[in-house]
Amino acid sequence: MKRVTRLLILAFVTGIAGTGLVMIRAGHSGQAPAQVIQLEMKEFTFTPKALTAKPGSVRILARNKGMVEHSLTVPALKNATTKNLLAGKSASLDLTVRAGTYQIVCDVPGHKEAGMVATLTVR
Ligand SMILES: [Cu+2]
């Protein structure tokens, strides 16, 4: 009985370690996007308001410089959103974009309407 328990624990721990390894490897082998754009958020604007990028992978580094929480969301792209970031917090959002114009908004209710809109132009 004890031996079985020990085996189970070993299997469990090995499983966790294995998962960790896979995650670490995925994080490191994923090529860092060549394009990194910094974007500041505050009440109620993005700075800059107009971003440009070339087609391909883009990483947007969003920093909340405001007093309340904000998010960075690209409605035209599936799952392209950060969580709501508290004041002082930042997050990166990796996107794959084609030529075109993408609207960036803050998804916190009322913020888009208050002016938290930016444009990403890809060409
Ligand atoms: Cu906001």
In short:
With 123 residues, the chain is of the alpha/beta class. The protein contains 2 helices and 7 strands. It is globular.
**Ligand set:** copper (II) ion
Query: What percent strand?
Result: 35-45%
- What would the average pLDDT be, to the nearest integer? 84
- Helical region count? 2
Shape: globular
CATH architecture of the largest domain: Sandwich
Can you tell me the number of structural domains? 2
- Per CATH, what is the topology of the largest domain? Immunoglobulin-like
End-to-end separation: 65 Å
Number of strands: 7
Order of helices and strands: HEEEEEEHE
- Uncertain regions: pLDDT < 50 for 5+ in a row? 8-29
Q: Calculate Rg over CA atoms.
A: 20 Å
Q: Structural class of the secondary structure composition? A: alpha/beta
Strand order of the largest sheet: 2-1-4-5
What does this structure look like?
This protein has 123 residues and is of the alpha/beta class. The protein has two helices and seven strands, in the order H-E-E-E-E-E-E-H-E. The chain has helices at 2-29, 111-114, and strands at residues 35-42, 45-47, 50-53, 56-64, 90-97, 100-105, 117-122. The protein has a four-stranded mixed beta sheet with strand order 2-1-4-5, with no helix packed on it. Strands 3-7-6 form a three-stranded mixed beta sheet. Bound molecules: copper (II) ion. Residues 70, 106, 108, 111, 116 line the site of copper (II) ion.
